[in-house]
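It would be a great kindness if you could assist me with a short task in structural biology. I am sending you one protein, given as its amino acid sequence and as whole-number tokens for its backbone shapes. I would ask you to consider whether the tokens describe a fold that such a sequence might reasonably adopt. The full record is reproduced below for your convenience.
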Amino acid sequence: MLLRMTAPMRVGILHDMAESAEEEASLGGAREAIMRLAIDDLRDRGRLDRDVEFVHGAGLGLPAGTAFAIERAFAELVAQGVILIVGPAIGDNALVATPLADQARIPTINWAGTERARSEYMFHLQVGSHEDESVLPSRIAVTPSLCAAVAVAPSASAPGDATLRPGSFARVIRISSATPSQK
């Protein structure tokens, strides 16, 4: 009987908040362990015919690092033959990685807070949006009897710049003390 071995599927993890996967893990990153739980469940139920091997690429991206670090980490993962990339997590870095995913034609999943990091090959696991949520803390925290206005200041980043576009929420929010019945 001939025993056939299948090569594992290679999944890249793009770490964008540290110089190495080890450094990011020390900061609380547990991406591989979390994904391994789901993969083991799929294997146990016969839904996967082979194992999954995780390949790590790391680069300290924006805002503390550089876009080049993300480009380099992405390219390293592509060169290692991954079929999927998970990451980045930071909005600016997801914007850098989006055209790279399309160019490499490798499905990539980000969970950054920017709705603009979506494309044919860049998938966005929605966990929020800088563009839409900049006003929420102000609305929750402000009581009309205590405060008349709140200023929302965006960060100096691509998602922060988007909050300043015409028609956006990132402006001074005036709070009226009148209740609906008094209007």
Observations:
- Residues 131-177 form one domain.
- DSSP finds seven helices and seven strands in the chain.
- The two ends are 84 Å apart (CA to CA).
